[in-house]
Amino acid sequence: MKISEILNSGRVTVSCELFPPKKDDDIARVKEVVRDISALRPDFMSVTYGAGGGTSRNTARIASEIQNCGVTALAHLTCVSSTREEVGQILSGLKEQHIENVLALRGDIPQNSDFPSPGQYRYAGELVRQIREYGGFCIGAACYPEGHVECAHREDDIGYLKEKVDSGCDFLTTQMFFDNNILYQFLYRILAKGIHIPVVAGIMPVTNSGQIRRICALSGTELPPRFRAIVDKFADKPAAMKQAGIAYATEQIIDLISNGVSAIHIYTMNKPDIAAKIMDNLSEIIRE
User: Fold this and answer.
1) pTM for the full model?
2) Which of 53, 199, 201, 202 has the smallest C-beta neighbourhood within 10 Å, fewest atoms?
């Protein structure tokens, strides 16, 4: 099924993201994660790409495993990891495996890399156009409620987003955020720019303090005082930090749903137990 159909169903949807193994030897473990998360019956599951293409060959394998478990799969595809020619080959491979959904990204540029090479796209919008021209895929793209870390002005960032949407996107997925007001303001701003496609809210359950500090340093995501207090209080108490992180993510999601945001995407970090707890917390809220 195409994700655009799922998102336009008129009901609340909850989806999950996981990442492929860094080494082929670990693929059995990730397949186990797929089975565990699939058992929660998310509306779809996405599979990331490895930085610099390091694990990209396993993205399609894991996406296929997701679909074998009866869940719609979304495969990430990045400019950084693939040349234009390779993009065509990857799309052909996805089509052969009946994967209909692709998240088109530029990707994180590896340090000391000469990007883009003559055979690569510089921007995700160019990748979106190739996928659209290839045909047959539902195309997603990323958006940044707090602005892309490499873009100095938020309005410029929304302008670039509009260009990406006009290239042929069917839906957007946000980078993680910890203050829902930031998302609400962002949604108003993109509507004013004429962006009307579905936006999926990306939620990161933070279960250890080291994780959040690294992620925020890379992404530029701000921690609101209320959440910073939680991290400071429970940083050296792993079990308490995990419980508090799940509670905070659950509360975020409930507030989003209450305010009309009907599509939620959980960044699971390959932890089925955390995804399961959040889904259980939402069981009656998202009941059809």
Assistant:
1) 0.92
2) 53
**For 81-106, what is each residue's pLDDT tens digit?**
777 888 889 999 999 999 999 999 97
Tell me if residue 100 is catalytic: no
Q: How far is CA 263 from CA 9, 27, 208, 209, in A?
A: 11, 29, 25, 27
Of the segments 22-36, 181-195, 204-218, which one has the largest average pLDDT value? 181-195
